[in-house]
Amino acid sequence: MARQATFSQRTGLSPLPDPIAPGEAPQLLRTTIWNRLLEVDNRSSGLDYSKVYLYHAAHVLAADVLNVPTDSLPNYDFERRDWLKERLLSSLSPHAFLDVIERLVTLHDLICRRAQRRPIDREMLIRWMNAAFEDALAPYRFVGTMLTPISNDDERKSIEAALHITESSGFNGAHAHLDSALRKLSQRPKPDARKATEEAILALESVAKRLAPDGRKAKFSQNVKWLAGKLQIHGSLTAFMLNLYGYGSDEEGVRHSIFDDPDAVRSDEARFAIIVCSATVNYLISRASACALRPDAEESAADIR
User: In the predicted model, is pLDDT for residue 250 greater than 70?
Assistant: First the structure.
């Protein structure tokens, strides 16, 4: 849950905090994240009361993302913790700060192996980080181990569900396209909105190809119309999918840009495309399963590309 308003804020004595704009990482966010990391560090305390999580996190992050010689790091645990604290709270640029937090989550298991302790599992760390972003009114959430500009929980869960169902059901091409779409949207310091939108719509196209007979040879519109009859999809929803694909195919700057202008598609459009395509992918695969419709064939490497 988001942080509750204080007494003075509820009574109008002090203003409510403003949401953090995309691309920003103000002190409130940095401090909230740091305090969560301190909780992890406290849980890593051993019988000798030494706290080792942030000590080893500093070493791993210095080598992996900060490009700092590891032999220049302080030796004592509290000094190394302060070294990492200074960077996270002060010296790192906003996008570098977000990069470090994303890599810390990705490398959590490695840090735990180096520390020979597992204070929390990675799923709990992700929940803690998402709670910190929510508390600070930051427009970011982790989807898996990827930090994305998706802040609405329902939207995030829809994308996570699409990634899960495509992977678990063998729709590897759709999974790869959705994963790529998220990476393009989450690219820092500037998202690649055009490519993110394209990849999201390719995920939808990939599912339709797999479910329809001879789907690889047919057009998207033919595949969707066949699926509409087979899966008893309402005509309005069928038209929506065709229009969505038409937007991805015809909109200047999306899949067949006339001027190849990377700024022709905005980040909010790309975000919308990923959310909508994820929900549609979830629907098609779930509906196909309910109707006992199996994917047409195994995907080749060319299909996944």
Answer: no
